[in-house]
Amino acid sequence: MTRRVRAVLAGGESGLTLIEMLVAASMSVILVGAASMMLISAVRTQPNISERSQDITTARWALERMTREIRNGIGIDTATASTVSFEAWVRRASCGSGEALAPEERAIRCQVTYTCTATACSRLEAAPGVESGTPTQIFAGIGDAEVFTYEPNEDPTFVGVTLRFPDPDGSGTTTIGDGASLRGGAPLAQ
Q1: 123-161: pLDDT as tens digits
Q2: How many CA atoms lie within 13 A of 12 on its CB side?
Q3: How far apart are CA 123 and CA 130, in angstroms?
Q4: Cis peptide, bond prior to residue 168, ω within 30 of zero
Q5: pLDDT tens digits along 27-37
Q6: Going by C-beta distance under 8 Å and a sequence separation of 6 or more, which residues neighbour residue 44?
Q7: Domain count, the chain
Q8: Residue 35 located in a structural domain
Q9: Domain that holds residue 118
Q10: Got the DSSP string for 27-89?
Q11: pTM of the model
């Protein structure tokens, strides 16, 4: 009996049976199919991931711009959930112009107004005390007009900014928030 086992182990019989070949082939088809499905799924979701990434990048840029200007703010004139208007120091030749100042020149005092609707936020820069003119859209794609919060409620010195925008696939909402105290305002107690 041991001679026969040694002969089998030594290669006396070689090759695969038909059943072993069929099992191996069906397992290969299943593995290749699963790998193909994962690849197809990844390719289909990539545009949504790219769109969401772009929305987040744009929202962060808008949020940083808003909070930077709020920090340069002197006093808040209009404070609602969808609009904030304040005087701030800006580096422009005149309020509302696109011409930047030379580094050695001093910033000027302007009225800055941010207004958000259920789909976009815009910025208006005008002479101090003026809240009218042609606004410039700075961010689109938000899903809620309630962007601004204030501390304290009366004569606020801190402005919170929260941007909410729907996910491209409709599965939820992405929220990015920050806030800033006005230069002339007292910081919040810890």
Answers
A1: 999 999 887 888 999 888 888 889 999 998 888 989 999
A2: 7
A3: 13
A4: no
A5: 999 999 999 99
A6: none
A7: 1
A8: no
A9: 49-181
A10: HHHHHHHHHHHHHHHHHHHHHHHHHHHHHHHHHHHHHHHHHHHHHTEEEEEEE-SSEEEEEEE
A11: 0.71
d(CA 8, CA 58): 70
Give the span between the Cα atoms of 162 and 166, in whole angstroms.
13
117 falls within a domain: yes
Residue 33 lies in a domain: no
Query: Which helix (H) or strand (E) segment is 125 a member of?
Result: strand 120-126
Report which of 113, 27, 104, 52 is spatially closest to residue 77, judged by C-alpha positions: 113
CA dist 85 and 178 (Å) reads 17
Tokens of 108: 């000027």
pLDDT of 190 reads 35
Domain assignment present for residue 9? The answer is no
pLDDT reported for residue 165: 83
